[in-house]
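User: I'm curious whether this sequence folds into something compact or stays loose and floppy. Could you predict its structure so I can see for myself?
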Amino acid sequence: MIKALRGMNDLMGYEAELFAKIVRVCESVARNYGFELIETPKLEQTALFRRSVGESSDIVGKEMYEFSDKSGDSVCLRPEGTAGVVRSFIENKFDKAGGVRKFYYTGSMFRYERPQRGRLREFHQFGVECFGEGSVYEDASVILLLAEILRKLGVKTTLKLNSLGDSSCMPEYKNKLIKFLNEREDRLCEDCKRRIITNPIRVLDCKNEACQSELATAPLITDNLSGECKSEFEKLQEILLANGLNFEIDKRLVRGLDYYCKTAFEFVSSELGAQSAVGGGGRYDRLVEFLGGKSTFGVGFAIGIERLIEILKLKEAPSSRSGIYIGAMDEAIVSCAFAIGQKLRAITKTHIAYEPKNLQKHLKSADSKMAKFCLCIGEDEFKNASVWCKNLEDKSQDMVKFNEIEDFFKDRV
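Assistant: Here's the prediction. I'll summarize afterward.
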């Protein structure tokens, strides 16, 4: 038997309903914030992610689905969404046109990592990207957008906030950090030793307990911010508090790539047990330039849909009964039941049985489909131009005339 690939799951039933609900809420809120839909390909040139995500990252080094196509070109299933949106932004010459462009996206991402709860090899993200707006108010806006999504979904989170500074304060800080790390290199894990050379900021994000102990006194970027960066970070906090959003300053929250600057944020939740991020983002004013475009402000976030599904499954019971089931008890009446079912499909979800059955079998079928109403037409009902109707929630029964059936259900479904 052919099975799905490991870490690539089918989505159906209640989980599919939750997926659709999450996407619906995300898209609705994003549109209200002025973002418009963008769809980018799942397959891109590998070079796009090597340049954007970075050669030194675990994503590029260990986790990408990378291969050569029939032309010999190196291509890759996208591991994240931002790079493809930036590539499209540049390819369509929006960087040269100027102005502000705001996009949202939903789709599959792919990483070859160990599958675990809420994290798969094919997973889904919702994200937003804003280009051309350098104001700290837009940083606050995308944070508030994500907070509103989580609030509407009923997911309890804590906002973690930090500033990464910019090109005026980061070089001096990196030198201080590298000096600190070199003095302790022999007590750090192998990944951290490698990152001292390739990506020293990422060392602060190491989850190894021994490394965390060594890094307790490491210099922090927030202690090295320029006057402008410090002022903007304080303004961001002021805007968020004025709009009713509390946060925690996390001085170790980092984005380890050179084009990230200033605002970095994550929303973390403890609803699955250990605290883990459900979404996050930040400002990346140099990414468009890194990928060959004209220097352009950028800020955005991504949120993991599978992680949200796992949280909502703990909080919500599966959907209650809904819709209508209709069937006939005689072969000659099936066409009549079908015609009535078609009318009801204009009002609500309707299941139509194509084979005649006795009443008990129709009731059993309606129950298995979690229908709210079971409608059945037998010989007597057909002669009287009526449908027998049972509400499977409160067990009430009615006889409804064919010509009154649409009005009967308008206020009941």
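Summary: The first helix runs from residue 13 to 32. The chain has two domains: 13-155+255-315, 324-410.
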